[in-house]
Amino acid sequence: MSDDLDELDAALRRAMAALDGDAPAGYFEALPGRTLARFEDPAIGELPEEPARPLRAVQGVRPPDDADDDAEDDDAVFASQVMAAVELPDEAELSGPEQPGTLPRRDLASASSAIMRAVPVEVDGELGNPGEIRGTGADLGARSASSRITVLPMPPVEPARPEAAAEGVRSTSAAAPMTEVGQARRRRRLRAAIMGLGGIGLAAVATIYLTAGRNGTLILSNGEPAAPASTTAEVSPGAGSGTSVGAVAAGSASSTGPGAAAGSRPAGSDSGVGSAASTPAVAGSGASQGSGSGAVPESLGKFPGPLVKRPGNVKLPSKGRSAKEEVKLPDGGTGKGAVGKKLAPGKPRLDRASLSGDDIERAMTAVAAQARACFPGTRETVSLRLTVVPSGRIAQVAVIGAFAGTPAGACVKRVVLGATFPAWSGAPQSFDYSYLLSD
Amino acid sequence: MADEANDLDRDLDLVLARRGDRDAFGRLVRRHQRRVYAAALHILGNHSDADDVTQEAFVRAYRGLGSFDGRADFFTWLYRIAVNTALNALRSGKRGAALHQRSGAEAAHVGGRPEALGHGAPSPAQRAEHASEVARVLAAVAELSPGLRVTLVLATVEELPHKQIAEILQIPEGTVAWRVNEARRLLKLRLAMTQPTSVAR
């Protein structure tokens, strides 16, 4: 055995030695000069301080008309327009050298900072009077300085349309445009939620009925990968009554949305965390609220039916256990009560005006393990730019920096498209996020 | 005494280079280029890619000199940049296929060089056999995943200790050992599958 290995190593060394002659004559004499010549390029030779470069006319991008029911994906289009309008300094594409204990994030961060400094933005996601500047990017930059998240500014909201007032929409304060937008969006989401419940909720109830034993246990059945985010049935531990909240997805599936993208993931890559709908019945957005995706173990990702969101100390089936697994309710309740009551349609949670850093961190951390699996090997950092629409759906993910256009970057992008964010009532948000990938 | 002087020169070049002295950095390039190039060549398998990676590694090193804190040896730091640049190039999928595509004729050419065959004038049969072995080994190495390939090259060809490989690749030593074993196992398997059949005379 040892001889075999020695022979193998020797063969390998002989082969590599044969390669050593590949360098043309005079190569090493010329290499220092050629390398130094590259430094004549100012982008390489110096470590420039990125100038605060003004953005192209972000203000020229119109926010979506939420009163228009036919334009359900306007949010995504709007977000794409904003992303297209944001011009990154070229230096953002460069990353510093990898060094133990440090992250090559400086270029990206400084590039982002340049944008932040350059553009007036609304602070705290509050939208005030049309055109009113409530702060600058530096404000947000300071707030996000301790985080890996760099919040990109969004354009100001346009003034309220006169016809909106004519329709009787209340417009009594300076924040009236935002109120109208929010109400229109809420109405739209409520409709979508109710319609979604017609299919998803019915399927969820039917499955719970079918799988609930009379002894008060819920049985999860195995099957094809599905979307836990859009089929999660939240079981209230106290009263033992079920309320479908997770199923209240906001909006419809778009072919460019995360649902479609995640659904096309190669087999084996799904772990059920934040993956979006893979069946027409649950083709709502993959951005349901309260999906609890981070807590769902990998094995649960294979269950097609309604997943019982872990309430408190419910024991979830571990890997390797039977496909049919009984999950006892924490209150020792019968479970009959839980399924005996009709599932009430949940209301979309729009108690947020914007995504907080914690929301972003939570959603991104939920898929971090999968993202790391894209890059077994050395310690690397992959940087992403995301745009999330208020429904919580990811409208756009771009891998920026060294991994742009690489298979690893594409893998991370696929994974991240499965992340779910809570819905909010403000404008689309863009931010940068970096994963440190390592074994 | 001479070693101390060399160390001083090296340190001085490093200090000067960090202050933006390109000539000093040029001396650093000259001092380390062969090993950096060799590592890149052994990982990537062809001169063109190795040249790109070598230059890229030096450019990255120059840009990052300000953040080099001197706690690690400069060469180790530089080597790490080079290996990771090569690894990224491999993983990008744009490179690394070169080993695969190395034609039999080309393999015969490199394998047929007298210096690759050791001392003495090899017979034509020996040259042919050696070229065939080189081609088979390179093809088998090319089929390894980038992580396995780099680890195997560093351990077997560059003969770095596992601890240093672990530092360079920023992975645990246990992972290095596993990768080396796994790479050897796969390599052996693939070489066995492509073993040329001997013709009885």
How would you describe this protein?
The complex is a heterodimer of chains A (439) and B (201). Chain A is α+β, with helices and mostly antiparallel strands and 439 residues long. Chain A has 14 helices and ten strands. In chain A, the strands form four sheets. Chain A has a four-stranded antiparallel beta sheet with strand order 3-10-8-9, with helices on both faces. In chain A, helix 5 crosses helix 6. The longest helix of chain A is centred in the middle third of the chain and has 36 residues. About 61% of the residues of chain A have low confidence. Chain B is mainly α and 201 residues long. Chain B has eleven helices and no strands. In chain B, helix 1 crosses helix 2, helix 9 crosses helix 11 and helix 10 packs across helix 11. Chain B is globular, with a radius of gyration of 19 Å. The chains are: A alpha+beta (439), B mainly alpha (201). The interface between A and B is large, with 50 and 69 residues.
Rg of chain B, rounded, reads 19 Å
Tell how many strands the DSSP assignment of chain A holds.
Answer: 10
First and last CA, distance of chain B: 63 Å
- Counting DSSP E segments of at least 2 residues, the number of strands of chain B comes to 0
> How much is the average pLDDT of chain A?
54
**Largest sheet of chain A, if any?**
4 strands, antiparallel
The H/E string of chain A reads HHHHHEEHEHHEHEEHEHHHEEHE
Order of helices and strands of chain B: HHHHHHHHHHH
The helicity of chain A comes to: 25-40%
Largest beta sheet of chain B, briefly?
Answer: none
What is the typical, i.e. mean, pLDDT of chain B?
Answer: 79
Major interchain interface with per-chain residue totals: A-B, 50 and 69 residues
What fraction strand of chain A? 5-15%
- DSSP helix count of chain A? 14
**Spatial strand order of the main sheet of chain A:** 3-10-8-9
Q: What would you call the structural class of chain A? A: alpha+beta
